[in-house]
Predict the 3D structure of the following.
Amino acid sequence: MKVLLINPPALNTIVANNPPLIDEERGINPPLGLLYLASSLREKGIDTEVLDTQVERLDYEELGRTLEGKKFDVVGITCMTLTLLDVLETIKVVKEINPHCKIVLGGPHPHIYPQETLNLQGVDYVVMGEGEIVFPQLLLSIREGRSPEKIPGIGWKENGEIRINPFPGYIENLDELPFPARELTPYHKYYSILTPRRPVTTMITSRGCPYSCIFCDRPHLGRKFRARSAENVVQEMEECEKLGIKEILIYDDTFNVDRRRVMEICELKKEKKVGIHWDVRVRVDIFDREMARKMKEAGCERLHFGVEAGTEKILKVLKKGITLEEARRAFQIAKEEGLKTLAYFMIGAPGETREDILETIEFALKLKPDYTHITILTPFPSTELYKEGVKKGIIPDFWGEFAREPQKGARIHYWEEILTENELQELLKYAYRRFYLRPSFILKEILKIRSLHDFLLRLKGGWNLLTGRGTRLRSQ
């Protein structure tokens, strides 16, 4: 059996309000979920290939030509609601090349909408939750021609009827998973605008977030914090360094949930003399000077802080669980310890007024982060925000409608109880210009330029700021 895992093109992906300097110009990251699956399949002796169409810059016609020379029995595709249109277009291309292959979708969208996903043309199976254990079991059942009825978390069609098995729960011991098979992709091509180092990669050291923000939900990963051991994390860092990778972007929801583990990772990385650089997402309320110092000594370059709002009122609405003073303290510590910072903010929360948003913009400037990432708050499927908005009639069940009948031109609905979408868009553009068009920021970015590639990325980002492109909802 030959399995092909595809990261689909991003040509029809719905993108909501991402900033021009940290959007498509921010770089290209490896499809980490598929690489985890690939390593798990290869460990079971299953012939597996990964095709990342995004890093290869393939459109659908080029994807078809690439597939013509390949043999495959099963195609696995990761699927988010925002990428559903591209996933369906990819399925169409795959089926034209090989009508008899089986299509398996995994990721957050089929986890939230398994029934709707299986009703879509070309989809044979869905995998709910984490796929590293159940996906190999599914492939074995396909190879042997038997029903997957005993495999938890699998949905499929049988005699025209959709069947969905109960959710299997989450993988408890993440150390048991093999490291992502980065060598199956052109890993030297991945980069980030936040660092001049090439190549970069992504890494996950934990899964699950124990916090209760109303705008965030990853049901396929759960709320229980499950962490890899320090030894396991540093061992993967060593492997990345051997591949020639220069920097790691750690994509945990919250890296510093377990303070002791953070310290152990830093100490072990220093002890083993692993020189690779890294950056992480951390919370301001559980960040302190000793942690900052240890991380800096262990090669950490920058911290991504989710602040989200510049007023106590909206922080409470979002159930963020932090205070403005904790944010001020965290950014001050990071700056004093020589760590770069990226601050996340959002506008358009329930009950938020224009005056509240202007306060948030001013607060973002006072924190003096190296970069800031601001978006209009988007009600994503399965979140508390989305459920409450639908219940109150503030938004329609537009994601449910899209899951049932995905069409181009789909419109994201925002929380327009006080401010309209147009008003929020104008405030978003104002926020970005206030931050990124400051002379001090422009000079700092010019001094960072080390290559023509860096120059062109920053030039494009600056042009998008001036013209307003990249701050609007778009369907590509």
Summary: Residues 18-25, 469-476 have pLDDT under 50 and may be disordered. The radius of gyration is 22 Å. The chain has two domains: 2-164, 194-378+414-436.
